[in-house]
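quick one, two chains, predict together pls
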Amino acid sequence: MPLTIEIHAEPHEGKRISLAGSLDTDTATQLQDKIDHEIDSTVHMVIMDLKRLEFLSSAGLRVIFKTKKYMDSHEGKFMLLNLQPQVRKVFDIIKALDGMNVFKSQEEMDEYLTAMQNKVLDGDA
Amino acid sequence: MTLKNKRFRSLATRLSFGITILGTVVFVTVLSANYLLSRNLLEEYIGELARTAASSTVKEIETVFSSVATSADSLSAMVTRADISEQQIQDSIRAFLKINPDIYGMTVALEPGVLHADIGEFSPYYFRDGNTLSYVDLAADDYRYLIWDWYNTPKSSNKAAWSEPYFDEGGGNALMTTYSTPLLAGDPSKFAGVATADISLGWLQQLVENINIRDSGFGLIVSKEDTIVAHPDSSRKMKKLKSTLDSAFIDNYWDIYLKSRQAHQATYFHAPCRHSTGDCWIAVKPLLDTGWKVVIVIPESELVSDIMLLTGEIALVAIAGLLVLVLIIVSTTRKMISPLERLARVTADIGSGNLDIKLPPPQRNDEIGALTKDFRSMRDSLQIHIEQLKETTAKQQKLESEIQIAKGIQMSMVPGGGTVSIKEHSYELYSILRPARSVGGDLYYFQQQGNKLHFIIGDVSDKGVPAALFMAKTVTLYTGALNDELSPGQTFTHMNHALCQNNDACMFVTALCGTLDLDTGQLVMANAGHMHPVQKTQNASAELAVDGALALGLMEDIEYPNVIHTLAPETSLLMYTDGISEAFNPAGEQYEEERLLAFVAQASDLSADALGTSSLADVEKFVNNAEQSDDITLMVIHYGK
């Protein structure tokens, strides 16, 4: 099964990476290349939208972790959105969701982002 | 070689054959057209020939006839003078005979008492007898001219006329025709007798026999009443023309013949031959005044044989031409194809692997020359490609052998080299590692230290060489931890710390490790993001909850908890990697944990070896020969005491 990757700009220097299909050993390199090309230190937020991702292997996980690690390294935000049950299971097994920003829906993420923003504003005030 | 020669020959032969066929078709068409054209031309020519022969014969006869008739007319003019004496008449007759050699005999026959009251029957007849003139008195009792047609016909019609041919018995004693012109005297004029001139028909016979048109063409002369006057076959002479023809011929052609004799022009028609097989061309030309006809007959067979002869000659030339053409084509083709043949021979050599062979130089600047040049550059690039391929293959072989060595090393890092089945007093252990590629990222390890059995099963993210390297690091770290006598939780905490160092690639390992107290059955386990083990007793089977933390290598400073269970005797513990739960069948479906749990639930033989091999067999049955997509590792520990 092939992998479709779409990367769009988001507010707050963000990028949304939407994946569809299968993220496995064969397609992980594809995603890695695209991310290497599109995500640099000017990007402050990466949203990985896995709504249409049907299969995720450990090779795919590695790319996701690597992206998260990169975002952490320059204090950017990394968020996972719309995990389908079979994908969520993969994350669950390796206990990877602890300490990650995972959102079931767009609304949930928007709420979180608004809260974060207010927090920052309050802090500034 | 033989094959190529054959092919070469067949190309030249095919070309020659094709051109020969084409040439033959063209030649046959041209010959047929030529035959038909020649035939038409010859037919016209023959018709012309027949008409010309008829006309010239007619002219010759008419000349003689008219001069003879003129003599008779002149004689009659002289005789009708009132004062002429018998002696003078006789002198005139002889004079005319002397002047006109065409006249055979001549006479003046008087109607008794009309011209001169004192002259009765009077008809002195002079005719040629060799070089002299003979005399007969036609008034004598043995002739009696008054009853003959030549006398009575002009008498009744008062017109000059040529008689039908007859044998003049007692007169000229020859076959002849006679021109009789009436003598008219007095006022009003009165029939006073006739003046006649004869023509010997022997002369006409001579004329007819001299008509030789080609080989078998001939002529004949027919009188007004259709008596054959002259014919090369003298047996037909004096017979009626109609009597010599059969009824079929008469039915079909007599009318045409009759019409043609009325025409002044010579006409001709086509009819079956009387004297030979096939058709004849027949020309008919009437003689003026007499109503006689000259008939010319030319058999068509002559015409056809002429054309056939002509066509045969052309055909001979054509065949010779074709032969020369074929020879030229064969030799040209051979010459043209010989470089191809050499190329073909060289191709066979190149096909058998000899790329250093000498190529024939391009001889001409044509397609074959271009082919030779292209062939040369093809050979050169082939040579380069093969060299490159050899290098690549050598590199690949080297890499392959390196990988094979790496595989050996990797497998030597796990106990039993990838498959192990041991039976001890208090436990059994079965374990298998099957990489999807030559090397992989799965791992297992175990070691018995006194009454403790330490074990680990793990799965490095991804597969292949990168995973294999990380797997080696993981196994090394685990064996190191064993020496430090750490608990499973401490082991993972320690290993995680080590694996996180400089792990920019974010490689990670999911793993389960544990220590089984072989005396008490106490099991201490830790889980780093791995699937829970399956516990199987004789009566029940279920996942054994071993809650843990994140997979190894992803995040520093994680504490992994020890989870403690106690195994009842005769309990089997089954651990596996996702190569089993995510094994795909050809339809793209996954095996799934549920299927494994269901299989284990119904298994009756709980020995480590039997449970391990039968579980693996169930996975293989499901996969049904589809390509293995991930490394597979399975470990079964059966606690016996």
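Chain A touches chain B at residues 1, 24-25, 28, 57-59, 61-63, 65-66, 69, 93-96, 98-99 (CB under 8 Å).
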